[in-house]
Structures are given as C-alpha cells and as structure tokens.
Amino acid sequence: VHYFSPGPASLPESVRNQIKEELLDTFGIGVSVMEISHRSKQYEQLNEETQAIARKVFQVPATHSILFSPGGAQQHFSVVPKHLSAPGEEIAYTDTGVWAHLACEEVFALPRKVHLVFDGRTNDYVSLGNPQDWDIPQNSKFIHLTVNNTVYGTEYPTIPTFGNIPLVLDMTSSLAARTDIPWESTALVYASAQKNFGIAGVSVIIMNNDLLEKSREITKHNHLGKAHSYHAIYDAKSALNTPPVFSIFAMNRMLNWIDHSGGTPAMEQWSLEKAKMIYSEIDAGLYIGRTHKNCRSRHNFVFKLPTEEQDNHFIAEAAKHNLLEIKGYRCVGGIRVSMYNGVCMESASVFAEFMRDYRKKYG
Ligand code: PLP
C-alpha cells in the first residue's frame, strides 16, 4: 500500500517495525511505554534523549529552547500570541490557507491590534503574494506565517524575514523537512508531530530563550493556565502534567530514523525530488495544478482533472493500484497527494508513473 494521507501520515517501514518490536517491553523491565511512569528513570531518559535528538534534527541553536506540549498545533493558535504580546499591542498575521485562517480567527478574538498583512482569500489561496510588499507596522511584536499550507498546497520557497520583526512560524507540515529556518529572526516555531516527525498527540514548541524568560511576565496579564504556559512546561522539563508518553516515544524513533538517514538536509532533498516528480506530471497535461508555480508546496500536491467526474474516476483507479488517501480537502475538492518524510521515494515514483499511465489512457 502507498498511503498519501495529509496527516496523520505514513511512517517509514523500519520505524513501524521498530515500534512494534519495542512496544510491549520497551525498556527491558517487562513494562510497555504506554504504562511506564513519567517519573521513572526510564522515561526521564527517553525524554532527555528525545530533547537531544530533536535539537539535532531540527537544527536548533543554543539561543532557543525546545519543549514538548500535549495535543495538536491548533491548541497553540491562541496560546502563542499570549506569550509574545500584551493586551493592546500590535501584531501581524497572514491568511494563507485553512490553518492560517483559523489562527487569525483566534487572534482576532484577543484584545490586540491585529494587522492582516496578507489576505489570501482575495485570490482563493492560489499564491502567497510578495512578502516584501507587505505593510507591517514596525512596532509589531511578531509576524505569524504558516510555512506550508497543507490544504491548498502552497509553501514559501524561502522563509521570508522582515528586519527586526520577529517571526512566529507554524511549521506543522514543514519542521524536520526544511533547513532554512532563520533562527536569528525567529521568536517561536510550533508544529505537531504527525506529519513529518512522529504521530499525533504531541507538539513541539521552539522558543527564543530571552522571549521565553520575558513571557513569564507577559503571561501574568493574559489569563493562561499553568499547563498552557511555555515557561512552566519548560521548567518542568516537558513533564508538567502526564505527557503523551507513547507519542513522545514514537517521535523519538522517527527523529532517530531521520538522523540516521542524513538528517533534515536529506529530508529536504528528498522532498524536493518527490515534488519534482509529481509536478512534472501535473505540468505534462490533463492535470490542472491549483497554485502558482512559484509557491508550490513540497509536501501537498493539489490538482484536479477537467471534471469532477474525472477526479472521482482518477481516485478510484488509483485505489485499484493501492494508491490511497488522495481525495482533496472537503472545501477544495479535486485531488491532494501528500508526501511527508515517511513516504519513500519508491511510493513517489509509483504515483508519478500512475499519473503518466492514466494520462496516456484517458488524456
Ligand atoms: N497548521 C497546519 C499548517 C496544519 O497543516 C495543521 C493540520 O493539518 C494544523 C496546523 C493543525 O494541526 P493539529 O491537527 O495538530 O491541531
């Protein structure tokens, strides 16, 4: 089976097998990772090792701290701005797709002066505009970008920077797959694990150390519970409340696999190659790509055929070849094929070949 789910996403075969083998007696003491106390020395060691491998794979410099938070990325849409800005302060947001839009909705409900500096709704989210043209107030506390827009299939070819204005990056579908994070300009990165580096249940927050310290004061005015405060989670070494131990274990195994496979540089290279294979088929005729070519996603390939009937036929034919989970998102329609780190090169080339054969037969 070749499985192209937009997330939760495929794990590499060897990671799946490793997790299966280790599941029931994970630490050699007859106890599974699902049962182990998060205060045991075995879990503490797993947690520390996962921190270390995360820092290596995500290429995080000493200026930033890493913490693991239970739950998904969406939980952080309203929590992130409460760590970096106080009521009444200015912040800048971009609406580049479904998830970016939800992040905007959450922040517009807060007592902040929110500047929407790019509104992708005006072009039906087919492009990301030109970031250099955006009018961002100089005293903005940060600007929020969604690096890869999973639903519409757009991604910044390089992550833009805006002088002294710190970046906040939703990298849910791009962390561990891109090497160009401009750390010096970055206040905070957040991502849930289930696309490129693990399974659902845990999110990673990477925050500039100085801003993490400053957030101790800022959060006092922002009505945040302790369990949602990044500094409290950091102080408790990511075990403030019972952590999602199984998700952290799976993330550990996936991060180690990434590391042994050449790290994020190799993942980035493979993503670019997989994307090239699929986009060359899209551009060869019959298929209609959804986005502008200058901001095509490296992970989510969104296209359609001339009619909805043909879309459905394509999806049904693909299923006969065990090419699964390629239906477009409900508000977009058409086809979306997602290839994150766990989707191997062979699956990408099998899919590209299927597209070629289908075009020859029905195009
Ligand atoms: N941000 C982006 C870019 C996403 O693609 C998604 C989910 O697909 C989310 C946020 C929401 O993630 P979660 O389901 O972990 O809350």
Give an overview of the whole structure.
36% of the residues lie in helices and 17% in strands. The protein is α/β, with parallel strands linked by helices and 363 residues long. The model has no long low-confidence stretch (mean pLDDT 97). It has two domains: 248 residues, Aspartate Aminotransferase, domain 2 (3-Layer(aba) Sandwich), CATH 3.40.640; 100 residues, Aspartate Aminotransferase, domain 1 (Alpha-Beta Complex). The chain has a seven-stranded mixed beta sheet, sandwiched between helices. The radius of gyration is 21 Å and the shape is globular. The chain has ten helices and 14 strands. β3, α4 and β4 form a beta-alpha-beta unit. α7 crosses α8. Bound molecules: pyridoxal-5'-phosphate. Pyridoxal-5'-phosphate binds next to loops.
List the keywords.
single chain, 363 residues, alpha/beta, Aspartate Aminotransferase, domain 2, Aspartate Aminotransferase, domain 1, 2 domains, 3-stranded antiparallel sheet, 10 helices, 14 strands, binds pyridoxal-5'-phosphate
